[in-house]
């Protein structure tokens, strides 16, 4: 069980990196256009993050770690895919996150007959003006729920690739930007394969994290049954932040500093996934970018303006496992991508610093 994603257990917010510590970047070596994060800035981001987590936690009970991972992905500007059994709250998690933020939300129920234009939009001829008008699809929202994404055909699934990576959609040779913040939360059922189309590796690589809720504890399940049968907790949620607040938090996360030793550590982890006998396809450079962005957001929520190895290790399984293709022999022997990444984290040397 990983440690808490964020919380008050970190050292004081006023600690500043020292040039003598290889894990703490020298402020003098940073780009002059990047302002150093101040203590009050970091405290405000942490407070906002706690408010989002508390709002989601009032609906999703007993899953604090998953909720905090969602908040990290939100701050890092990444997309998430939630893969788990039916009825454990995948869709409810996405809806709770969307209702906690005062921004545009849309939901797409993926089915085999869904067309790419049903997601991105279509140009319609206006007889009055004699011109074609673009009618945007549900992808033009701040938070998009792609429910049961593996039920759509590969052609429809691929319509999300440009949107997720470039934050834009091209329809009839015209590129339409998607306003930030923009986050896709996809859900899929890992055990029901009838009438489904597995997501291609290229699309899985666009998701920053893969999360799994799992079954709740007996105490939490009892509370869920009581709440869901006495009232609708989702309908009672009110936004705790707006889109601009989220953008400010995202921009603050980009200003978190990373030492060269930490960047090399991430590269070593990626290289280790590519050199394993049980791995057919290892993690891509995009995976390293996603892991570092998530680690920067996590460091900020933990009250630091610099990344340490623990930030990387706490997120590596969630950011890398779904990007790794196991060999057929590994699948036969029951090896999982999650266990493989966890094992690699024990073998890849961790950079040491003075902190």
Structure description:
It is a single chain. The protein has 355 residues and is an alpha/beta fold. It has a domain at 18-37 and 255-355: Orthogonal Bundle (Helicase, Ruva Protein, domain 3). It has helices at residues 39-57, 64-76, 90-99, 117-120, 154-166, 201-204, 218-230, 243-254, 260-274, 285-301, 309-320, 328-332, 337-347; strands at residues 80-83, 101-102, 105-109, 121-126, 131-136, 143-147, 168-171, 174-177, 183-188, 209-211, 241-242, 279-281, 325-326. A five-stranded parallel β-sheet has the order 3-6-9-1-10. A two-stranded parallel sheet has the order 2-11. α8 packs across α10 (285-301). The chain is globular and about 70 Å long. Mean pLDDT is 87; it is low at 8-20.
Please name the CATH topology of the domain at 18-37 and 255-355: Helicase, Ruva Protein, domain 3
Helix content: 40-55%
* Integer-rounded radius of gyration: 21 Å
The separation of the N and C termini measures 24 Å
Summarize the main sheet: 5 strands, parallel
Order of neighbouring strands in the sheet with most strands? 3-6-9-1-10
Total DSSP helices: 13
Overall mean pLDDT score?
87
Shape: globular
Stretches with pLDDT under 50, minimum 5 residues: 8-20
How many beta-strand segments?
13
| CATH-defined architecture of the domain at 18-37 and 255-355 | Orthogonal Bundle
Question: Which class of secondary structure composition applies to the elements?
Answer: alpha/beta
- CATH homology group of the domain at 18-37 and 255-355: Magnesium chelatase subunit I, C-Terminal domain
Instruction: Tell me the strand percentage band.
Output: 5-15%
Q: What's the level 1 CATH class of the domain at 18-37 and 255-355?
A: Mainly Alpha
> Helix and strand string, N-terminal first?
HHEHEEHEEEHEEEHEHEHHEHHEHH
């Amino acid at each position: 069980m990983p440690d808490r994603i964020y919380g008050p257990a970190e050292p004081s917010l006023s600690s500043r990196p020292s040039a003598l510590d290889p894990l703490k970047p020298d402020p003098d070596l940073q780009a002059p256009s990047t302002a150093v994060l101040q203590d009050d800035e970091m405290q405000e981001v942490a407070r906002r993050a706690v408010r989002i987590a508390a709002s989601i936690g009032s609906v999703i009970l007993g899953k604090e770690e998953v909720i905090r991972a969602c908040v990290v992905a939100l701050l890092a500007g990444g997309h998430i895919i939630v893969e788990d059994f039916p009825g454990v709250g995948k869709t409810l998690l996405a809806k709770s996150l969307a209702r906690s933020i005062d921004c545009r939300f849309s939901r797409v129920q993926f089915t085999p007959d869904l067309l790419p234009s049903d997601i991105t939009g279509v140009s319609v001829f206006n007889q009055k003006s004699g011109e074609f008008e673009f009618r945007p699809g549900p992808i033009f929202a701040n938070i998009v729920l792609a429910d049961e994404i593996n039920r759509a055909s590969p052609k429809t699934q691929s319509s999300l690739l440009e949107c997720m990576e470039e934050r834009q959609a091209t329809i009839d040779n015209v590129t339409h930007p998607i306003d930030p913040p923009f986050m896709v939360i996809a859900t899929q059922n890992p055990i029901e394969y009838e009438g489904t189309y597995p997501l291609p590796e290229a699309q899985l690589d666009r998701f920053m994290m893969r999360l799994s809720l799992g079954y709740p504890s007996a105490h939490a399940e009892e509370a869920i049954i009581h709440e869901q049968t006495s009232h609708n907790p989702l309908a009672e949620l009110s936004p705790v932040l707006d889109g601009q607040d989220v953008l400010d938090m995202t921009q603050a996360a980009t200003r978190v500093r990373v030492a060269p030793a930490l960047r090399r550590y991430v590269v070593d982890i990626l290289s280790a996934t590519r050199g394993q006998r049980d791995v057919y396809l290892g993690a891509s450079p995009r995976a390293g970018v996603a892991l570092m962005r998530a680690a920067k957001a996590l460091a900020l929520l933990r009250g630091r303006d610099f990344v340490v190895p623990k930030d990387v290790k706490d997120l590596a399984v969630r950011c890398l496992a779904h990007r790794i293709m196991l060999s057929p022999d590994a699948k036969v022997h029951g090896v999982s991508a999650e266990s493989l990444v966890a094992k690699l984290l024990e073998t890849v040397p961790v950079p040491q610093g003075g902190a």
